[in-house]
Design brief:
The protein has 238 residues and is α+β, with helices and mostly antiparallel strands. It contains three helices and twelve strands, in the order ββαββββββββαβαβ. The N and C termini lie close together (4 Å). The C terminus is likely disordered.
């Protein structure tokens, strides 16, 4: 399930589960789901039509791996937590357009179930006051929350992890974003690895996984923006 949840979102982003295709090796072809392919797509797109942020999940990067780059963007990453039992690798990256130089790390969440990185992106020009915001270094000026034009959260849920844990995390994250000042300025994009034809129950609860997911989205005032099948042949995944 590739998801993009929004409270009437009006800023453009791109999202891709890159599934380890982050390598910049000269021998790696520019196939879909690769960083080279994405770099080419950015270069071929008119500047005015490029997104404010590009979100990638399942990067499978280690802290010792070099920084992935896209021309015209700055890189914010949260590398995966190795989990031999689940045999899965996560990791997320958010690329932010260079002209939006004031960025605050709003959220960093890394467990064996869910990995997520959240950024507050501020207006390009604004007087300093309020909460801390940062450029690449993580230390910067102070801006108030009213200056945020976009809060973007990129996440990845490991396929064999507890769905109930994920749903609880999702409800908390979405609920925390619904302050009056943040309304209409939040998007959460990622891969929940949930089949939309799912008939599994959540723990001892009689509510189905997909029904629970939809209830959380509705209760928190968000919309599911991905409405088409994203994976063929294994049920309907969104």
């Amino acid at each position: 399930m590739a998801t993009a949840f929004s409270s009437t979102f009006h800023q453009q982003i791109w999202f891709l589960n890159i599934n380890g295709g982050i390598s910049n090796s000269p021998s790696r072809r520019a196939t879909p789901r690769s960083l080279k392919w994405l770099q080419g797509k950015v270069q071929a797109t008119q500047r005015s039509r490029l997104p404010i942020a590009i979100c990638l999940c399942e990067t499978k990067l280690k802290p010792t791996d070099p920084e992935p780059t896209i021309i015209g963007y700055r890189t914010y990453r949260l590398d995966h937590v190795a989990d031999l039992q689940l045999r899965a690798h996560g990791g997320v990256i958010i690329f932010v357009k260079n002209e939006f130089s004031f960025v605050k790390r709003y959220l960093e969440h890394s467990t064996s179930s869910v990995e997520a990185l959240g950024l507050d992106i501020f207006e390009r020009r604004r007087s300093a006051r309020g909460g801390k915001v940062t450029g690449q270094s993580g230390v910067g000026q102070h801006l108030d929350q009213d200056g945020i034009i976009l809060r973007v959260i990129c996440y990845y849920r490991r396929p064999k992890s507890d769905r109930a844990v994920f749903l609880s995390w999702l409800e908390e994250v979405l609920g925390n974003t619904m302050s009056a000042t943040m309304k209409n300025r939040v998007i959460l994009a990622g891969d929940a690895n949930i089949n939309m034809d799912e008939v599994t129950k959540v723990g001892q609860n009689s509510t189905l996984v997909v029904e629970s997911l939809k209830q959380i989205i509705d209760k928190c005032g968000f919309q599911q923006l991905v409405t088409e099948v994203t994976r063929e042949g294994i049920g309907k995944w969104h």
